[in-house]
Amino acid sequence: MGSSGFSWKLEDHPKLPKGKILAMVVLDGWGEANPNKYNCIHGAPDKWRLVRAHGKAVGLPTEDDMGNSEVGHNALGAGRIFAQGGSPKGRLAPNIVESQESSRACHLDPVLTPTPLRHHRCFWPRLSNDDYSRRPLNATCVVLPRIVQFVIEDLGLSSLRRCPLLSFLMGIGLSLQISVRAGSTPLLASFIYFAPPNLAKLVDLALDSGKIYDGEGFSYIKESFATGTLHLIGLLSDGGVHSRLDQLQLLLKGASERGAKRIRVHILTDGRDVLDGSSVGFVEILENDLSKLREKGVDAQIASGGGRMYVTMDRYENDWGVVKRGWDAQVLGEAPHKFKSAVEAVKKLREGANDQYLPPFVIVDESGKAVGPVVDGDAVVTLNFRADRMVMLAKALEYEDFDKFDRVRFPKIRYAGMLEYDGELKLPSKYLVSPPEIERTSGEYLVHNGVSTFACSETVKFGHVTFFWNGNRSGYFNSDMEEYVEIPSDSGITFNVKPKMKALEISEKARDAILSRKYLQVRVNLPNSDMVGHTGDIDATVVACKAADEAVKMILDAIEQVGGIYVVTADHGNAEDMVKRNKKGEPQLDKNGQIQILTSHTLEPVPLAIGGPGLAPGVRFRKDVPDGGLANVAATVMNLHGLVAPTDYETTLIEVVDN
Ligand SMILES: O=C(O)[C@@H](CO)OP(=O)(O)O
Ligand SMILES: [Mn+2]
Ligand SMILES: [Mn+2]
User: Fold this and answer.
1) pTM (predicted TM-score)
2) Whole domain around residue 241: which residue ranges?
3) Which of 15, 24, 70, 533 is the most exposed place for a label (fewest CB within 10 A)?
4) In the listed set 385, 403, 433, which residue is the last one of a domain according to the structure?
């Protein structure tokens, strides 16, 4: 134990043995929903019987925020929900939740179900997500340290953020328990708002409080305002996974009030976290904002654009061509398509591609000249708060030595990210908002306690089971005890073309790692249901789910052979519901009477299955965990490695009963 009293050493579990080989499988975008023709998981032959897990425990502020890989894998790996933005470091919500049992309606019911995993002892927790239907709360005043309970009458959920009292309390880092009622009618909603736990919220706070403009990052870019142009590059939607339109709007306002006289916005259209086709509307909103700025004398325009999956937002270095296409349009002002207006550009280009894949375009003036290339003396801000799809562009903008593609010109600019995208690489070196620190992740504990680890996925999700899993940190904790293997993803295609992706290769690597008996934890992410689900192609997504299912079988067979344990779960939903639904849950039709395909993640819970011949008899899902979620998995897995989890981790989901 060090002088601080901290020790990496974990206690031995009183009842569970060490030394069992454990397979940790994350099915990306694999949620639970009723079987119907838009459910590609139940549509797959040999379907699994899955159970619900509520995604809220990943720390997103409201029940309207769908889960995503980042927050999902952060929670899975870190075992805690991090409170940020003014509240004490560490865990804030769980203590409170524990003392609030009576008002929480999330149950963790063990359901012993015969399933395709039936060869093994297997338990399914049911984490219900019926928070919306909770009984009204009666308390109306401060009742616990750092948590305030509210019952709000006649207030829609969307107005909550606009309520000055609430936004003040959120701003100073309080957790709020909020119930919303309309007059004397039944409860509309009740949820606990955890003090800002996620990146989007950190940016919200910095913008709302104005602190963003006092920070080092903004002061740095501001130096360019007098003579240079401010370029804002990022995803244009209100999806809230990588970026949010309202944050761009606030930043435009804030920067122009603080001296930015010439602003160019380089947009990336979405259609992945929001409905396909919605990009036109977002561009119109932005154009309207920019024209208002122009009325105030600010020279503000959209300068370039393209679909996020084809332009700029590649990740984990899968295809530098994507970033190059963006660079050419944004920095060099060159693109195959030239338009006078961005609305016109998006409308026209949508005739040949969907929002995610629009080809790059630049906006040109009357003389046909690009209106906003990046030149020496300019400032650039990348707007996305989420790291994975901004790191590659950040490298191109920041690194003097760079050989991934020919940049042609490398302008001398002042560049800041919305956040620091990689803490290990310190990239970018300047950023507007400080990221949360996620330390003492389960991966780091495990290597300190003798658990050797093998992690693998294909490129598009490789960072999810390494970087996100380890608290947004790249590299090994201890290279003698860890091996991370990346299988190159297909590039230059949309994944509905090859929906099996690299599931077979990933499972073969995992199988070999298990059978080698060199590692006590073998962790994989199987991307199929998510990546193909995002394409909106239902038939291909069924094939994708089947491929992931077969990969899991191979891994489970290997676990069977070595007498090990498996944990199979997912990070959020996607493939289990591929249609936009109305409030009644019915498929929604567009203006032309067509079904609206849902390419985004969902709000659905995810399964968690534990089993295998190495699972000690008497292991059960606990009945007394009122609110189980992804953050509870880390402690559970530590137990299965024969260790007691750190006390500040979210509680384990299992117990051992004497038979
Ligand atoms: O593709 C992505 O970037 C996101 C959706 O925006 O998906 P995931 O969170 O599953 O990585
Ligand atoms: Mn995911
Ligand atoms: Mn996804």
Assistant:
1) 0.76
2) 199-433
3) 15
4) 433
